[in-house]
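Our consortium's second objective concerns turning raw sequence data into structural hypotheses that experimental partners can test. To show how far this objective has progressed, the report includes one record in full. It was chosen at random from the queue rather than selected for favorable results. The single chain below, 88 residues long, was entered without modification.
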Amino acid sequence: MENETQHTINLINRESLSATGVKDVDTFNEQEISAVCDNYKLVIKGDKLHIDQLSTDTGVLNVTGRISSLSYVEKVTSNSLIKRLFGG
């Protein structure tokens, strides 16, 4: 956790989101954006979502649209249970 980039979220009226600490965006469409952070993904769900800005240099992601939920999903690491069970 020492080397993790600081992550912040600013959400205004569920219509404008600004996040820092974003490394990349895995997938996106008008209903869902999956943003990659250090050891997790930030999943943004809603309607008519649009990425206004993504800077992998500064880690800034700006999204507009009707945002209905934000959730975090842990990334699978090399020490995951399945890999340990099957010798991966």
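The partners drew two points from this record. The two ends are 24 Å apart (CA to CA). The chain is about 5% helix and 60% strand. Both points have been shared with the crystallography group to help prioritize constructs.
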